[in-house]
């Protein structure tokens, strides 16, 4: 499949890919690079790749697959940095949470290379090289969004790579990906950031009791709201149109629930809550409830 894989950006995603290759693809040689010298140093201590280079150019030399694992707003810079060392045959991919703008940024920066964007829908609220673990991708979807002219053999190699790390792979159009992920991932994060912010602003009124008595629901929101600020700023800057369109839908539905509460319309509430309860049960039945941060580190879900 691939003999040498270069990983650019050694935070949660990059370190997990390094560890997952070591565990599942023995024989594949990996090289890593991160713009932050402290991350490179830590990556060496943790053995996240066969070698950690001091420059992006050095890291990608001889690689047949390069995976960019940097915030979506840093993809273009990362691609330009490594370009002088990139062999002509190398497939360039990424793990960014939004796809249309990343696909364009990478195609513009690397016009002569095969760029096949991808998004492993697997992660946690943690970031940095210490947060990675080899089982992150196991039983999780990886969405691959190839441009129309992608050679079939190259696409098949990338699909096989993600399957070897334990993922289920879906091939999808980038614009469709951005719409779906806006509602399943990006807006939920926005809601979590906002509700935790609102509760924190209320602390003066409630004398600290919001945090003190935070029950399950709010506590779950605080986990999501602890996610990396740079990464999520970049997601909303780069998936603006899809997020705004889904946000309009959501605001309409929220307003309908506000009206139901105002009107004492218990049936409307019961209908929605019953429908959503069934969705949750279906997710659990399908074994997809494995987003807990300890998944794969000896937790019972693994
Ligand atoms: N955190 C998550 O749960 C998930 C994140 N993603 C995507 O994966 C990508 C990486 O996210 P994380 O690993 O969570 O972030 P992270 O913050 O843990 O790591 C990102 C790393 O990229 C490095 N970096 C930034 N600019 C760079 C550049 N120009 N060249 C080289 N290195 C550079 C940073 O120093 C940092 O170490 C993002 O695009 C994110 O949208 C995808 C799925 C899940
Ligand atoms: O921690 C969680 O619950 C997540 O939702 C992780 C996550 C964050 C970003 C992605 O693009 C994919 C997965």
UniProtKB/TrEMBL annotation:
Catalytic activity: prephenate + NAD(+) = 3-(4-hydroxyphenyl)pyruvate + CO2 + NADH
Single GO term (MF): NAD+ binding
Source organism superkingdom: Bacteria
Pathway connected to this protein: Amino-acid biosynthesis; L-tyrosine biosynthesis; (4-hydroxyphenyl)pyruvate from prephenate (NAD(+) route): step 1/1
EC number(s) recorded for this UniProt protein: 1.3.1.12
Listed PROSITE patterns: PDH_ADH
Keywords, in A-Z order: Amino-acid biosynthesis, Aromatic amino acid biosynthesis, NAD, Oxidoreductase, Tyrosine biosynthesis
Top EC group: oxidoreductase
Short name of any one Pfam family annotated for the protein: PDH_C
Domain Prephenate/arogenate dehydrogenase: 3-291
Keyword Oxidoreductase: yes
A GO BP annotation: tyrosine biosynthetic process
Matches recorded under PANTHER family: PREPHENATE DEHYDROGENASE (PTHR21363), PREPHENATE DEHYDROGENASE [NADP(+)] (PTHR21363:SF0)
Protein family per UniProt: Belongs to the prephenate/arogenate dehydrogenase family.
Name of this protein: prephenate dehydrogenase
Organism taxonomic ancestry: Bacteria, Pseudomonadati, Pseudomonadota, Alphaproteobacteria, Sphingomonadales
């Amino acid at each position: 499949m691939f003999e040498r894989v270069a990983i650019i950006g050694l935070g949660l995603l990059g370190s997990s890919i390094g560890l997952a290759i070591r565990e599942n693809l023995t024989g594949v040689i990996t090289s890593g690079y991160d713009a932050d010298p402290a991350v490179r140093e830590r990556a060496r201590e943790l053995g996240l790749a066969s070698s950690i280079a001091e420059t992006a150019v050095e890291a990608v030399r001889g690689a047949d697959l390069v995976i960019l694992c940097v915030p979506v707003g840093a993809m273009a810079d990362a691609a330009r940095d490594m370009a002088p060392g990139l062999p002509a045959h190398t497939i360039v991919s990424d793990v960014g949470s939004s796809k249309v703008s990343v696909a364009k940024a990478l195609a513009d920066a690397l016009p002569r290379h095969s760029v096949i964007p991808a998004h492993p829908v697997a992660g946690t609220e943690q970031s940095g090289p210490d947060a990675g673990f080899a089982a992150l991708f196991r039983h999780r979807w990886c969405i691959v969004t190839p441009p129309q002219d992608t050679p079939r053999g190259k696409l098949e190699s990338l699909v096989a790579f993600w399957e070897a790390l334990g993922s289920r792979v879906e091939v999808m159009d980038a614009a469709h990906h951005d719409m779906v992920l806006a509602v399943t991932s990006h807006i939920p994060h926005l809601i979590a950031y906002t509700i935790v912010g609102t509760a924190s602003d209320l602390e003066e009124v409630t004398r600290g009791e919001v945090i003190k008595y935070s029950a399950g629901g709010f506590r779950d929101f605080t986990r999501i709201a602890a996610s990396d600020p740079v990464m999520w700023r970049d997601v909303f800057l780069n998936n603006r149109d899809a997020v705004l369109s889904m946000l309009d839908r959501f605001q309409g539905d929220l307003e309908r629930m506000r009206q139901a509460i105002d009107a004492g319309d218990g049936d409307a509430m019961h209908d929605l809550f019953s429908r959503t309860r069934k969705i949750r049960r279906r997710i659990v039945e399908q074994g997809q409830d494995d987003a807990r941060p300890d998944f794969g580190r000896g937790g019972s879900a693994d």
